[in-house]
User: What shape does this take?
Amino acid sequence: MTGADAEAGPLGRVVRVPLVEPLANRDFRLVWLGESVSLLGDQFNTVALAWLVLGLTGSGFALGAILVATAIPRGAFMLLGGVLSDRISPRDLALASDLLRAVLTTVVAGLVLGAQVQLWHLAVVGIAFGTVDAVFLPAINTLVPRLVPSDRLAAANAVMAGTAQLVGTVGPAVAGFAVALTGVGAAFVIDAASFVVAAAALWFVRSGATPGRPEAPDRQTVTDPSAAGTDDVAVPSTPAMARPSVREALIDGVRVVLGDPVMRSIVVLSTALNLAFTGPMVVGLPWLVFVRFGGGAASLGLLLAAYGAGSLGGVLLAGSLPRPRRLGPIVMTLALGMGLGLAAIGLAPSIAVAGALLLAIGAMNGYVNIVVIAWVQGRTDPAMLGRTMSFLMLGSVVAAPLSLALAAIVVDRHATAMFLVAGLLVVAATLVAIASGLPRLMR
Assistant: This one.
């Protein structure tokens, strides 16, 4: 039990369900509460931004351009954010990021309420917002493993991901109603306030304040790539005589992460999954519903809800069960299942069949995400944790926009082929990971 657990008082004695055990930790509870509020605020931002841009221009292309303006710096500076998370307190980085995003969102709110907003304002704020996100995302994913012991990492990640899934399911409806009732400007005010709440919660976090060293006990680390896959071997880091420069730290992170065959395979597989899934899910599913099946918005909502319910179930399962002994083979089997399921969606004869496939794919994806992230966090040298997590996130940040663009180009003429090729890409990437020995090393 950590010191923070002991301070949790009655809650620490009452909570015995594995999934919610991390909430007995005061500091983790603060992070979870703050980020939950911030995630809800993000839903207000998403709805309000789309409504605002479409209202100003009537152009979907303009909305896409604003989103790309945010995505490019987020991807470009993600690895730098990982370096900073290893050099500076991740708690302080996340706190500062929340405050900066509150300021940026407040600027937008003021422009909207003052009827002065223009498209270029949104582009400039989007670029700044994406840059701050590139620091925040590695920081928050580096902070969580510093707050809980390694045997609770899966549960902690499940709590965070499960909450995000719930907010992402319910939040858009709440935000849409609020925007219709109070207007776009008020929605941005709410989002800005949510960042302030998240920053306030981080302000009271006492652990996770020291970069490069975990606060939670019993962390097993691997700093030598040749020791990859041996969870019971800890190779201590040798303290450096002088702190390396940011450039040297970045190069060292690339060398260590990509020099580790396990991490290299996981990064490649993660990137392939994001490239395969994002476009078909975001662009392809609506096309199937409206064009092939002749359904409406309610049908699309049911399909998305099926995937969301499956994801939530997988997340809860991963957070409730102990880590399986044969983790690598199980992850590879589920990845193959996701690829075959994605390919099958393109051949689905009805909305009901597509919904069943999405439910299964979501469950497999939710489970795999949690167990893999927890495993990586538990085996990584704390001094490298920020850079390692930034590499994991970089795949999604870079692959997602490319996947969306490719899907937009091919969906009208080759929707079935798009799903088949995407599914085969997942299968191929998984087979490459198997051939590289990942199932054997990942245990």
In short: The two ends are 25 Å apart (CA to CA). The longest helix spans residues 385-435. The CA atoms of residues 163 and 404 lie 25 Å apart. DSSP finds 16 helices and no strands in the chain.
